[in-house]
Amino acid sequence: MARNCRKDRSKALAGSWDKNAGNWARAVRDGLIPSRRAGTDEAIVNAILAHKPARLLDVGCGEGWLIRRVAQSIDCQALSIDGSAALIADARQADPRHAYRVFAYADLIEDAKSLGTGFDAIVFNYAILDEDAARLLTSVEPLLAPEGRIFIQTLHPRALDGPYRDGWRTEDFAAFAGPGWEPMPWYFRTVESWHETLRDAGLVLLDLTEPMADGRPLSLLMTCKSLKR
Fold first, then answer.
1. Which helix (H) or strand (E) holds 71?
2. Whole domain around residue 81: which residue ranges?
3. Which among 89, 131, 149, 229 counts the fewest CB atoms within 10 Å?
4. pTM across the whole model
5. How many domains does the chain have?
């Protein structure tokens, strides 16, 4: 029963991206998400630029803003993937220069190497919201270059209301501007649980930062490498 419930939530999570695609693109491009304006966009971009990747993979790219922003500062070979065909269509329309591919997380777990290898940076920017995160991260580890890094930015557990324990929650987007949002299930993790997830995926945490605004944490930003390299 629990396994079927997890699958149902994972399916609903994946489906929500297509249902909310138009609202997501508008919210990102019009600067309607307060935490992004306050510093999370800048934090992930600066972390990537400091590593100076020649090859970059953006996993769960949404409408593609991150690659466009990084490309303003460095010239790198970039590939962006997302399970939502609608969001990938938005990304391609906004940026004909870079490669955007419809590629779901299930595809990534099944056949990650079809994306290529030797990536200097693999980025998950608010893109790990499912329960089976360790399996997802394990699937991309072989794609890293010898000095490659995985960058993960996610919701800060201490910035959210509710019990401080792992479990599924629902985002209703009430804080976002505009109507028509479809509620989205997502999986909450404690800081300890994130450490366990990275360990189970064969990753070493090199750096953990907490972008702040007005004395409050906005996100967790983790930089990792492979334990094997």
1. helix 65-71
2. 2-226
3. 229
4. 0.95
5. 1
Residue 113: which CATH number?
3.40.50.150
Query: Which backbone phi and psi does 41 adopt, to 5 degrees?
Result: -60, -50
Q: What are phi and psi of 222, to 5 degrees?
A: -115, 135
Q: Percentage of residues in the chain with pLDDT exceeding 90?
A: 77
CB 121 within 8 A of CB 98: no
- Mean pLDDT, rounded, for 23-32: 88
- Residues belonging to the chain: 229
What token pair was written down for 139?
């699937």
Please provide the DSSP assignment of 152-188 as one string.
EEEE-GGGS-S-SS-EEEEE--TTSSSS-PPPEEEEE
In sequence order, the 6+-apart residues with CB closer than 8 A to the CB of 148 are: 118, 119, 120, 121, 122, 225, 226, 229
Specify the pLDDT at position 197.
98
Can you say whether the dihedral through the CA atoms of 149, 214, 217, 159 is positive or negative?
negative
